[in-house]
Fold:
Amino acid sequence: MGSDLITNDIRKLRFERGEMTQAELAEKTGVTRQTINAIEQGKYFPSLEVAFGIAAALGVPLEQVFHYKGE
Amino acid sequence: MSYREKSVWIALLLDLGLYGFYAWSLYDVIQTDRTETFEYGRLLITLVIILVIATIVLEAIVAGASAKDSAAPADERERLIALKATNVAYSIAVISALTAAGCVAYSQVQPFYIANGLFLAVVFAESVRNVIQIVRFRRGA
Structure:
């Protein structure tokens, strides 16, 4: 379920927003804290719905959260 | 550890404990050559009742300890983990059922061995499903 081509800045963005915890982000996004942790570590890639939810919870566009390193 | 992972641990440990006891009992029956007289259905029903009650009690304790998580529906990652584990378990169950059907059609195996072989396959498939889920929960995906 992982890929080296997609990275994310969730951890950095969380700390830029008053050290938001994984649990807080999880609650705003509607997933478990373990799922946020897995996404943050690049072990799991979320659906578009959850990805947009994370971006909205962090208050940034999707492309500031997830980055595609291919092509 | 998430609520779902705790639930899977409960299911796995209860399955292994109770069905392990059942298998051990059957081993004794086979060793003493009582396969045609032993009422394994009665033992099995008793163990299933114990399993249901123990599951309800342990689930209630775990749910009480993490009320917020237990009330929320499984998220997409948890559902995907369950789906992948179920796919493997389904394959095991189907292969086992076909093997049992083959035994019935082409050999003189006693019903005792066919019934319990099938049951063992179902328990094995369920245990594999739970182990896969735990491994995936531990690995993060």
About this structure: The mean pLDDT of chain B is 87. The radius of gyration of chain B is 18 Å.
